[in-house]
Amino acid sequence: MEDTSRDAQCRVAAFLAVHDLQAPLAERLLDLVSEVGELSKTMLNASDYGRVPFAVTEAWREELGDVAFSLLSVAVASEVDLAEALDAALDKMTRRIAESGDAASGR
């Protein structure tokens, strides 16, 4: 079953409400940072700290799902429509590429 980012955000909001897991934005952001750290650690372990090529594992999928949940929780807590924010980011990068040939900022 495919979800749009808006559908996923609604599902996360409902899950948080049903399980009484609301938290302040700062806590949600710290949780996201923590989950990204866990994802990074999973990559380090899977690649033997860069000594072997990385291959996607079940642990990677699980941690990536946790990162997605945490990011969506940040969007819920800050009352930002993540689908709209993503559209704006893609538009911004498209303009940068058209103007400078590079999607990065500040170069």
Tell me the β content: under 5%
What's the total helix number? 4
Number of strands: 0
Q: Which CATH architecture is right?
A: Orthogonal Bundle
**Distance separating the two termini:** 40 Å
User: What about the largest sheet?
Assistant: none
**C-alpha-based Rg, rounded:** 17 Å
Along the chain, the helix and strand elements come as: HHHH
- For the record, the count of structural domains works out to 1
- Specify the helix fraction band: over 70%
The CATH class name reads: Mainly Alpha
- Assign the CATH superfamily: MazG-like
Question: Strands, helices and their partners?
Answer:
Elements (H helix, E strand, L loop, with lengths): L4 H14 L6 H22 L11 H21 L3 H19 L7
Helix pairs in contact: 1-3, 2-3
